[in-house]
Design brief:
Radius of gyration: 21 Å
CATH superfamily of the largest domain: NADP-dependent oxidoreductase domain
Structural class: alpha/beta
Bound molecules: iron/sulfur cluster
CATH class of the largest domain: Alpha Beta
Helix content: 40-55%
Number of strands: 10
CATH topology of the largest domain: TIM Barrel
Strand content: 5-15%
Order of helices and strands: EEEHEHEHEHHEHEHEHHEHHHHH
Strand order of the largest sheet: 3-4-5-6-7-8-9-10
Length: 372
Amino acid sequence: MVRRAFGACAPVSLFTLGTMRALESPAQLQAVLEAALEAGINHLETAPAYGPSQRYLGRALRQLGIEPAEMLITSKLLPGCSLQQGQQQLQRTLEQLGRARLDNLAVHGLNTAEHLQWVFSGPGRDLLQWAEEEQLVGQVGFSSHGPNDLIDTAIRSKRFGFASLHLHLLDPARMHLAAQALQQGMGLMAISPADKGGQLWDPPPMLQQACAPIAPLELAYRFLIARGISTLTLGAASPDQLQWAQLLGGADGPLTASEQQALERLNQQRLDNLGDSLCGQCRACLPCPSGVPIPELLRLRNLTIGHGMERHARERYAMVGQAGHWFEQINAAACQGCNQCLPRCPHQLPIPELLADTHQRLASSPRRRLWG
Ligand code: SF4
Ligand code: SF4
């Protein structure tokens, strides 16, 4: 499998094994890890917040006799703890993984201004510095589900060697941040292109039709690979779910003519189906005095009408307000119809009407995120 630079870490494989879906038993994770190794994956991602992931991993690494140089590890640490708590947690991580040193340590969910403050002037600053000085970590980075300006601040700080971001074919709003980070020499990991990127492991017929003969998930992976993203997480629950890593692990060239055409058909499908109600995701309508995240909510409408992705959009919409700072907190029903956003939209979209339509199409019972 092709390997790409990842900040100051040794190069990582195009696919990274995410370990939050193979936690039913130590044997399940061991089988997936073994298959990942066979597929050429040399990088895995875990976190103390993923239940028994680190314990199971440490056990599987020992059982399979995998040396630190064979499998690089990224783990994470939630922001907000004291220096001492963070030190204890990192030491526990190393113990569980059976490693003297972690290749990459990410601040897990750098999502709010308070988190930034924790990193730059609070206990997080001392914690990360301590971990580096003690040579317990190779480099520090961050993952973020937060707003673009916050991610931009984190990248520009030059404090981090890598970032894990939601970068998706059908949600490209952070691609410019990825390009900026790559230009600075940071490593870039795309979080869950298959699942969070639109449940592309089970695409609706309309989406399949636009992408054919290429599978939507293949196109989504190739889109990111061709943009130079260092590595893509693949959260396999069984060895057979690593098939895309095997198929695409060497496919690191630019998009082919056939892939370009599929992308064009995808854009055309969106335009045809949404007509003049397509939200261009430019964000010019913000801020809304009621805090409605207009582009994020209208993106779900775009997916529903544009590509027939109602199941995915409904699930994401049901998470609004249910996951704290990990997801949007206000849904479309909060629109007060004040019309302040209207003159700011370059497409003259009837935003309150579209929000009401979004709510009507997607509202159902609330749903919680996978962990935490
Ligand atoms: S009309 Fe609705 S979405 Fe637009 S600014 Fe007012 S409250 Fe926000
Ligand atoms: S300004 Fe209009 S097109 Fe741009 S994100 Fe807002 S609603 Fe969408």
